[in-house]
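User: Could you check the structure of this?
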Amino acid sequence: MRPILVVMAAGMGSRFGGMKQIAPVGPHGEIILDYACYDAIRAGYEKIVFVIKKENEDLFRETAGDRIARKADVYYAFQEQTLPQGFEIPAGRVKPWGTGHAVLSAAPFLDGPFTVTNADDYYGPAAYRAMAEHLISSSPDAAMVGYALKNTVTENGSVSRGVCDRDKDGYLLRVTEKTRIEKRGDGIVSVEPDGEKPLDPETVVSMNFWGFGPGALDSFRESFLTFLREKLPENPLKAEFYLPAAAQDLIDRGLARVKVLTSPDAWHGVTYREDREEVMSALAAMHGAGLYPEKLF
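Assistant: Sure, the predicted structure tokens are below.
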């Protein structure tokens, strides 16, 4: 069965200052999402599910969805504020419930193995090929594509990354979400409540490029309920259910192993408005080198 691509695009890009998912970065006005879908389609993905906010549907369709729908089957899942029965939205809460919840929002469309990515990250074609091959092989293992931390930070502020520990066979042992990673001169640190902790630039981190079988969704639902009961009360306005935490639950409960795949491609992302120029330059060079045609779609 061909894998399904889930693209998380519900975030409004508050640090970027608008909907960074639809900011043009390619030589003909392409957005990062165009490159993601182009790379996925040529790797064998035929079904794409965009997780967006309902109020952004018309703009999203006009900007990207309708164009991509000419090359693949496109569906829309809406990440809403609603919660399971028995739980109430905390007063004043406006923040989405996080990347793990975004995947659950797409669950009605996930009838096969699926890959999850961010709409504002450029992962490169090798990542999609590696993940597609893994999922098509019918391996019982989940998977993630990891990147060296040094290739995923920005000069323009802090980023959030899932720091990964692997065993000797290349399987994920633990992923720890670090929500404020910053450059410090020639080094990289994690800013934490008790101070700054240095990080090895070669540390493998999760960029939310994951692959799962459809059976993982039941575990994600249970993990979300645990989050609502135990984590949300600690920070009711800002706590989020992260996808790496859902994957960690799979590992801790012995429900799946997570194979760490690698990609030789450089990662590029637009976290802040100032990042856009670097991404535009990198993509222009890739077009010039023939990695991409003059126009993607």
